[in-house]
């Protein structure tokens, strides 16, 4: 199977950045081994997995994820992935966090890394970023549960990361109870990692994680220095920036479950949820903050641009691009343009 036929029913998940892009994300299930073809001269590789194989040049890949790996990865491949600046993520169901290799992070002319760390050390700025992220996450709950103005007021008055996380935890608990009830799984807990529904939610989350990680690295930010998620032992910034958009993957899984008519297995729900998520991310949406129409997937790039603009003091506020409807008033002055804007 070549790069131009990267859609596969056995969980090869690929997703090109744009219609014209020559690079695609490659997500391989139950990896077995990889071989370089022809040996010694080309950067074409054959990736073999349980059920098939994919052959491509590394220049055609922008992100590689291996799920349920059982084979060996040669050091030569890791060197080549670094040379092509391709992040690699390895995950198994029983791993609480995926294992991520990413290329070394260079700085840029604006020294964005220094700004990122300084804002993280500034309690006022850090809590402002965290509040903004959770506010948008809570707005994503509103089609499932009622979020009162009082809830938002409490969030606005929170002045510590701990207080923000407590508000988010209480609201999320109500949300998950309603979400599971709505899809016919009352009593299910999000922490039950063995349930097929949660397996699908995790898989779609890792899919979006990979997209966000790609753009964080591209814009020379550190993926390990987040604002809401405190530890620097994992890619905390990725999990920060996915918060406002979790509703997308949750809606995708919900749609799939409602259409499967009771045929619930890990493979059925997970594969269909990834396919549905890709379709949803390709939909064109209107972004009121910039008065632009973009594919929904470009919001995941846009939030990195928005954070970068705020960290460099190009904008006075952290304005997260969200889909919505047209409204009156003067447009915001932004220092960037959303990718793929129409």
Mean pLDDT, all residues: 86
Biggest sheet details: 5 strands, mixed
Shape estimate? globular
Note the total helix count: 10
Strand content: 5-15%
What would you note in describing this structure?
The structure is a single chain. The protein has helices spanning 75-83, 112-121, 123-139, 149-157, 161-182, 196-218, 236-242, 246-260, 266-281, 298-311, and strands at 13-16, 24-29, 31-37, 44-49, 52-57, 61-67, 88-91, 99-101, 284-287, 292-295. By secondary structure, it is an alpha+beta fold. A hairpin with a 6-residue loop joins strand 3 and strand 4 (44-49). Mean pLDDT is 86; it is low at 1-11.
Brief overview, please?
The protein is an alpha+beta fold and 342 residues long.
What is the topology?
Blueprint: E1 13-16, E2 24-29, E3 31-37, E4 44-49, E5 52-57, E6 61-67, H1 75-83, E7 88-91, E8 99-101, H2 112-121, H3 123-139, H4 149-157, H5 161-182, H6 196-218, H7 236-242, H8 246-260, H9 266-281, E9 284-287, E10 292-295, H10 298-311
Parallel strand pairs: 2-6, 6-7
Antiparallel strand pairs: 1-2, 3-4, 4-5, 7-8, 9-10
Helix pairs in contact: 3-5, 6-7, 6-8, 6-9, 8-9
Distinctive features:
342 residues, globular, disordered N terminus, alpha+beta, three-stranded antiparallel sheet, 10 strands, 10 helices, 42% helix, five-stranded mixed sheet
């Amino acid at each position: 199977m070549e790069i131009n036929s990267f859609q596969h029913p056995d969980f090869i998940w690929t997703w090109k950045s744009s219609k014209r892009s020559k690079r695609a994300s490659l997500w391989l299930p139950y990896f077995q081994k990889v071989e370089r073809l022809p040996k010694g001269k080309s950067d074409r590789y054959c990736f073999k997995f349980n059920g098939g194989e994919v052959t491509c040049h590394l220049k055609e890949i922008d992100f590689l994820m291996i799920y349920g790996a059982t084979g060996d990865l040669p050091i030569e491949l890791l060197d080549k992935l670094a040379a092509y600046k391709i992040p690699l993520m390895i995950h198994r169901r029983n791993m609480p966090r995926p294992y991520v290799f990413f290329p070394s992070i260079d700085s840029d002319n604006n020294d964005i890394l220094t700004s990122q760390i300084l804002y993280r050390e500034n309690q006022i700025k850090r809590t402002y970023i965290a509040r903004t992220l959770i506010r948008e996450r809570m707005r994503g709950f509103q089609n499932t549960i009622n979020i009162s103005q009082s809830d938002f007021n409490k969030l606005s008055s929170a002045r510590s990361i701990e207080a923000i996380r407590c508000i988010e935890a209480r609201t999320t608990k109500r949300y998950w109870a309603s979400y599971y009830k709505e899809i016919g799984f009352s009593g299910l807990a999000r922490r039950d990692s063995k349930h097929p529904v949660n397996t699908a939610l995790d898989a779609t989350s890792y899919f979006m994680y990979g997209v966000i990680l790609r753009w964080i690295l591209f814009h020379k930010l550190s993926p390990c220095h987040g604002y809401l998620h405190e530890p620097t032992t994992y890619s905390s910034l990725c999990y920060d920036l996915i918060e406002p958009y979790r509703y997308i993957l949750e809606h995708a899984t919900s749609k799939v479950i409602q259409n499967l008519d009771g045929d619930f297995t890990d493979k059925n729900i997970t594969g269909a949820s990834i396919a549905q998520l890709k379709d949803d991310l390709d939909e064109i949406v209107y972004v009121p903050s910039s008065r632009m129409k973009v594919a929904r997937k470009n919001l995941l790039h846009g939030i990195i641009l928005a954070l970068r603009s705020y960290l460099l003091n190009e904008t006075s506020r952290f304005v997260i691009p969200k889909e919505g409807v047209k409204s009156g008033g003067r447009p915001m002055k932004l220092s960037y343009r959303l990718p793929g804007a129409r």
